[in-house]
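ESCALATION

Customer reports they have been waiting on this structure for their group meeting. Please prioritize. Original submission:
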Amino acid sequence: MTDDLLICGAGPAGRALAHRAIAHGLTVTLIDPRPERRWTPTYAAWADELPDWVAPEAIAATVDRPVAWTHRRLELDRRYVVFDTAALQDSLDVSGARLLADRVTEITPAARHTAHGLDLPSVRLASGQVLPGARIIDARGIGRSAELAEQTAFGVIVERAQWPDADTYFMDWRDDNGAAADEPRSFLYAVPLGDDRVLLEETCLAGRPALSPDLLRDRLHHRLRSRGIGLTGEEPVERVRFPLHGGRATSSAFGAAGALTHPATGYSVATALRLADATVAGDPTWPGSARAVRLLRQAGLRALLALPPTDIPVFFDAFFALPPAAQRAYLSGHDDLPGTTSAMTKLFLALPWRLRRRLAAAVTLPSIP
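Update from on-call: job pushed to the front of the queue and completed.
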């Protein structure tokens, strides 16, 4: 029997796709070297990005007004949610799928001109098995490459009592992490993981090469010491490293592999959740407007990579001073071309002339692949 949908990769994107396909009555095979492995990263999203079907128990914490620190404290008028990673994974029930613990080595598209008519697409597995499927979607993520800009982070999870600050920091660019003014910048990401725990994470938003997790660890420890927060060394640790761009904007790939990672923020999980139903239905998820938005976001990544370290807070001060609708369009508008264009134009005009010249030069470079 040939399944309706064969999904390669059982991370958040692949599992969400399988979960929704099963909910719509499709037969599904989910292939991954470790399909039952437990996820460990912390995932978060803007609340208004999430589809209605996301289980309430998958949300560990909700923050009505997260804070950005640039040269000043800015409250963001948009609700932010942090997932309970284990509960999110469990809520994406795939018990109705066939799970194969194997590695996909090759995906072969359908051959349209054979003596037997239309051949189905198929995958070849490391075990040697070849499986056909009515549809095959690659959700295996993106491999690391020196050509790809990356986001890196090092974080610790502490008890709430160890972090008395009432604010949730979406980005805290204050310079108390021990880095010299001319060194690449990193920011503090501080979010609740429920009522009792907080994630404190030093983050390199974008770099080619990105800052190493070990350097970010040292910066985080310095920052916390400067704020009077001591660590025992026994705290759970989170390390982050992933490419900010890459993948293929096509209906045969999904999640990071399908170019759904936001090149200027690294967010992708909420977009995958939101587009899962449309992808299962075979609706176009990459219309011309979405492809144009992707090009503009890639220009935004080039702009970030070109900024001098001392001007990073200036850039984000201008961004977070934009109207909430403009911020939302740029951060979440997958196919909102007018909104994205308007937001980027407003941001450009709000910046000092010296930054406008630098950004204009950066965004006219060839597009990131």
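Sent to customer with the following note: The chain has three domains: 5-142+246-281, 150-243, 288-363.
Escalation resolved.
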